């Protein structure tokens, strides 16, 4: 720290002659400019600002990192960024503490004790690479698919897939099934892309089903700005359905508490009210969807408000009133996130919700429900071919879940334990399933400890997360401020491309991921004779980025990568004004383009095209390029027939209802009086498992009492601060209660992100211990200032595996628990999960798959369908994993929804 002595003080205040020259600059930067500059408050010199894309969480905000004397001293929003518009959240402001985490791993480490014992030996990169290459060599000779890589966040722009494909392995898994997959799978077949971009800023009515937009949610920084604009400046009404009074619900005009997993029923009943009162947009439905208004009316008759009210607990009057308000206030938009989706029938819920903007014609309108806008980039050539053999399961495919196009990766430990798949080498990249998946230490932890199941495990991480602590070898990757990555996210209505670039040199011997992967391949194939090296011929991260960005049309003319290095984002749409808007040269706010589906195809594009006489779909060279409507040739939506597919025939093929529908969670039907449902949610200043060691954020929030309703508290004799035991069929935790009115009486809510047992000293309050032997990078004087002694409790060990048979999602918010006052044996922080019981839960979830016996019981309306035996099983197993939405854009540069869809997946 610089000390503020009299001399430096005088210098800053500009009262000495020497300081006169710097004073105006200081004043200018701080008072008359909006940002993008930073001045050292002591020396008064201007700090170097380097634009990056934030990656403390996964929203991808445009940021600027300020560097002084080689150290990152401050972060702020990039004022040139069209989505972020100069603002960053608390997490974004704290990102340098990833880099300067005193327990960061900066050298390759080899395990020397038993797995998880915490004994490590520092080795050289040469030794580490030789060891990994040796193991890979053995594995790929036997079966390339025995090399597994599971990632959480993967913003490498294609490098991970390139690596695995170079090895010939298809065993690439991701975390999307614990994240939001059922939302994506609910949307995609109807809509095309796997996300929507609501135009909150211009809406007059906003319906929010289960998203905590203002503090978490996908895109919470860009979207919360627009929600505030909509509600404050445009006087939009915001209505939130949530099981608890989230910060978003609390700032809504109305919070409507719902019984868990019943959003779909409410949305269907609202549709019933709209259709039976003729409040729908018939013209839109008849023109742009694959059903008619009459068909829709007939179908929705069954979903009465009385029926939905019984299921959800929401009064009939409320359902009717909100439905009328939504349908008659234009423009209106809707947003959902994980609240409706993370259930056994999450995809049905999502589908039911999205029907509301569709039937009211609020699609692709200013203030409405819009398609995502994004951009793609080309891949370096040559590219490795796709693996010859399909893996049993991967990020897009599982034999029992053919519709789950974003995978069901959370089932992996059971398949490994059952011998369905065989692992020789296992990599993790930004993935901490031992903490973030159902069962956590009781399932994934048990699996990683078993050398028979996982013979060799490599973690590519800079942090000693719960997963990394169980590795055989740690390859120290770089946190986001030290690496190159391409970016694009459809988080505003203006598409953009961005980059991450190293703002300082990697600390210690850390290497950024694409370099680690390259070095492994070069060690495996030093002279290129195995045909692998040719896919990895690049000098460094920057060189790789040139392959992505130097040939994107239009960007190329603006300077390609050099433009992005300077600005962090492209294009620059305008200038940030004092009200927080991006304005053009005349001072007017830049307008988004709407009605993307109504762009007309040119005569050139129509040349040689064929028009389907019934659906109107226009195809050219076997590919659908548009749809003919009222004699005009439009590009339409990016579904196979270019219309919105309200009826999803692909679902019927596997015995699911192709029309909007609802299924109640069977185990929620006959709950006992003393049973409740557990919800685990996110809070504003933390990000999953990864921010507990970020000191500024840990100081703001470090513990997570369980919310419960006053009525419930009274019933079980518990008040705020008392210990409670929360027990499910697979385990239990003992935690503190927080008793108040802001939660449904049948729900108990415990936020995630707390109760670590690894992740360095601060996260698990072992900060009094000395820096950790071989890997501990440094001491941090602030660790002496930690004043709290509560690290919270993590609930995942008692959450069983549940799989949405359509969307593949983990049913996080379905767990039935008994909550009792803690007994004399119970201690705060007790956590228990039982592997055998988790295995039972996994078997139970398979019974709901289309191949399982409970499937038919659950779908009597699909009786006409003959059951799993009637579909060609072989074909189902081989089925190309539905529309492959890779986490990174592989497409050639393209604007619009299709490219955006690829970006959004993660
Ligand atoms: N600050 C912060 N922001 C984040 C993240 C983070 O960790 N921290 N993570 C990012 C990621 S990875 C994701 S996927 C998104 C998630 O973004 P969101 O989905 O918006 O957030 P969640 O907390 O997962 O869940 C949303 C809400 O669902 C509610 N809920 C539970 N069950 C039901 C139900 O049956 N019906 C309804 N209507 N509501 C229900 C919960 O109470 C919670 O408030 O956030 C992203 N943004
Ligand atoms: N109970 C419950 N659990 C949940 C949820 C819930 O609602 N309820 N939500 C889920 C959701 S939405 C999601 S998205 C998942 C997230 O699940 P994960 O993707 O597993 O979670 P993260 O905490 O983001 O991953 C952190 C791991 O990445 C590594 N890491 C961190 N930073 C870096 C880096 O810069 N480079 C590299 N190479 N590695 C790094 C660390 O080793 C760390 O252990 O969690 C889910 N878990
Ligand atoms: Mo997520």
TrEMBL record:
Region ranges (Disordered): 866-906
The UniProt record lists the keyword Translocase: no
Ranges for domain 4Fe-4S Mo/W bis-MGD-type: 46-103
Alphabetical list of SUPFAM superfamilies matching this protein: ADC-like, Formate dehydrogenase/DMSO reductase, domains 1-3
Domain of life: Bacteria
UniProt feature, compositional bias: Low complexity: 873-899
Cofactor dependence: Mo-bis(molybdopterin guanine dinucleotide)
Transmembrane segments: none
Keywords: 4Fe-4S, Iron, Iron-sulfur, Metal-binding, Molybdenum, Oxidoreductase, Signal
Family to which this protein belongs: Belongs to the prokaryotic molybdopterin-containing oxidoreductase family.
PANTHER family for this protein: TETRATHIONATE REDUCTASE SUBUNIT A, TRIMETHYLAMINE-N-OXIDE REDUCTASE
Official protein name in the record: Molybdopterin-dependent oxidoreductase
